[in-house]
Amino acid sequence: MALWKAAFAALSLFAAVEGFTTPAVSRVSQPLRMAATLAESELGTIATENIRNIAVIAHVDHGKTTLVDALLRQTNVFRDTAQADEAGERVMDSEDQERERGITILAKNLAVMRDGVKINIMDTPGHADFGGEVERVLNMCDGVLLVVDSVEGPKPQTRFVLDKALKQNMKVVVVVNKIDRPAARPDYVVDKVFDLMMELGASDEQIDFTTVFASGLNGISGMDPDDMQEDMKPLFDAIRDCVDAPTVKSTEPEALQCLVSNIDYDNFKGKMGIARITAGTIKAGQPVALARPDTPKKTGRLTSLFIFDNLGKREVEAASAGEIIMFSGLDNVEIGDTLITNEGGGANAAEPLPPIAVELPTVRMTLGVNRSPLAGREGKFLTSRMIRDRLFKETDRNVALQVEETDSADKYAVSGRGQLHLTVLIETMRREGFELEVGPPVVIYKENEETGEIEEPFEKVEVRVPEEYSGSVIDLFNTRNGELQDMGLDDGGEAMSVIQYLIPTRGMLGLRSELLTATRGTAIIDAVFDSYRPKLKVDIKSRDKGSLLAFEDGVTTSFGMENAQDRGKLFVGPQEDVYKGMIVGIHQRPGDLAVNVCKTKALTNMRSATKGITVGITAPIEMSMDACVEYIASDEILEVTPSKFRMAKNPDMDQKRKKK
Question: 3-class secondary structure for 349-394?
Fold first, then answer.
């Protein structure tokens, strides 16, 4: 044993002198170690021929994440059926809010092996407000799977994500999903996708796309809707044959270029960057630099290097061009940085790549310290410094988000792609234990550099609604200064009207809840940013009714609520804390009205003539955070705590009114 140890020490010393790395001692058994080594040695040859980097893009609710689930289940990612059942459905939607809302919010990476080909898959959000996630992920891909519903066909967000992919000259594999639906019309959907590609100026090669018909829920696919196979093999074959392998200019270590497209955090390794190696090779432990055009380099050394393996990651010693990696050791890494070599001081290092270009935000909200009389009862994070640190930390990975200081030391202006983009952030902070004061959403205006005119963002909105409600929908859009673009009946035979409007973004604020109310929850609303246009010289009213305000501080009583509910609909129930100026309900008329919901019944010795008459208290309206944000007007604020949402009149606005 002593002789063996001496031999191993001598071998390690020789390896260190010669620049080699000895294998780390591990608990992996010898057969598994051989398999891992074989996989890693194959990885070097995979880099150019047997790697496919694809993004799955689609409109919201077209079955994109369910399709990824089917791909996972048919590539032996799960050990057995029991483990697959334990993982559940929509495995990639791992965040709590994603599962609750039924949408994908964050883009995620995974990798699967199929017939000797490694497929790096990026699952992307389908909602327009999270378009920034799609834009940065496309930088890591060579092709896209465009998932389209077999009944609905291309929708507004389909157009947005497809346009981004076509501009980067990517090959497109069209997947007509949910082919098992009784009303499926695959030929119509394929024709609509072809028309959309022609509209977006696709090249001849891109227009000659491959179409695969699939049902992600049932795990079946086929090249013909009438000849479906019982697995996803046709889709895997289409990915292998139709998506190009990564184009590699050079594999020399000096040519290293990796554009960082995502950031992750590890409790033990700290901040980690996710990037695709465009050129060159990289090794764990080598000196590297983070560079941007016309910006000083940030130098460091990689402590760990990973590649994606199934739903997780696997540590490797080296990776070459075409692979998607995750690395640690550089705490100041940011999205848009280019990882280059710093061997020899970076004398022969490659030039940094252009940083990721993301469309500018269109909606702004103010977030600040909770100043209400009931503040500090529940939250763990209350101060402006804590809120500031959390907001700026979010900008590390949320590239479409912007945070700015304001004139007030305890308020910050947060700008995003839309109202949902911002409310998801607020909800995340609320669950982490923050207490916040949130202002109403406002649109971001900009000045046209050529004409000098002030412009505002417009959105293209498509509403599918039963015919009997189409009149109500048109009335609501007209009151918000919408411009009717198109109107007709859905070709699917469901007696649904399809109405398309071009409307200012400020007209859309608060409109969704009104549309759902007017159509009894049957409206399907899809909106996507269209363009900046000259600002309309009209005021757009967000709502036509005022608010019921608490008359004084106290606790609500049944007696006080009996009188108040005659004036409108209440948001609060009995025995709830309220304060003066807090919004406790919706007034049935325009204008605000103060009501005393804390009033108690006077106790006397006299018998009341109406003692036996009781009035029932109507159940209060339960307001979600999204509903509260849509409700508040320009002179109102929202108080967010870990368990409560309270709306109130903005005290700053009251002071200004009193001064006047």
Answer: CCCCCCCCCCCCCCEEEEEECCCCCCCCCCCCECCHHHHHHHHHHH
Cα 244 to Cα 171: distance, rounded to the nearest angstrom: 8
Specify the pLDDT at position 311: 75
Measured distance CA(521)–CA(500) in Å, rounded: 18
Please indicate whether residue 127 or residue 34 has the higher confidence score (pLDDT).
127
Amino acid symbol at 491: D
Helices (H), 74-130: 81-87, 96-101
| Distance (Å, whole) CA 109 – CA 111 | 7
Q: Tell me: the pLDDT tens digits for 626-647?
A: 889 988 888 889 999 998 999 9
Chain centroid to CA 244: 27
From CA 137, how far away is CA 103, in angstroms rounded? 17
Six token digits for residue 630: 């849509």
Q: How far apart are CA 335 and CA 644, in angstroms?
A: 35
SS3 561: helix
**What gap in Å lies between CA 474 and CA 499, rounded to an integer?**
8
Phi, psi at residue 96, to the nearest 5°?
Answer: -60, -45
Beta carbons of 466 and 519 less than 8 angstroms apart: yes
For residue 516, report the phi and psi dihedrals to the nearest 5 degrees: -65, -35
Give the ranges where 433-469 is alpha helix by DSSP (H).
none
Which amino acid is present at 91? V
**162 versus 47: which is more confidently predicted?**
162
pTM confidence score: 0.80
**φ and ψ at residue 603, rounded to 5 degrees:** -95, 125
CB 503 within 8 A of CB 476: no
* Structure letter (DSSP) for residue 343: G
Q: Express each pLDDT in 348-376 by its tens digit.
A: 788 888 887 777 888 999 999 998 898 88
Pairing of strands 324-328, 402-405: unpaired
Share of the chain above pLDDT 70, in %: 86
Beta-bridge mates of residue 111 = 120, 310
Closest CA to 316 of 44, 628, 30: 44
Task: Say what angle helices 419-432 and 384-394 make with each other, to 10 degrees.
Answer: 130
Q: Which amino acid is present at 419?
A: Q
Residues in the chain: 660
Burial of 503 (0-12, 13-18, 19+ CB in 10 A): buried
Which residue, 279, 302, 280, is CA-closest to 289? 302
Copy the structure tokens of residue 403: 């945070």
Residues 6+ apart with CB under 8 A from 179: 150, 186, 213, 214, 215, 220, 225, 228
Please say whether the beta carbons of 522 and 539 come within 8 A: no
Query: DSSP label at 78?
Result: S
User: Packing angle between helix 156-167 and helix 186-199, nearest 10 degrees?
Assistant: 50
Lookup result for tokens 């109310």: 517
DSSP state of 253: G
Q: Round to whole Å and give the CA distance between 178 and 63.
A: 7
d(CA 132, CA 137): 9
Tokens of 331: 């705490």
- Both tokens of 44, joined, read 């070097």
Q: Using CA atoms, how far apart are residues 314 and 329, in angstroms rounded to an integer?
A: 16
β-pair partners for 282: 319
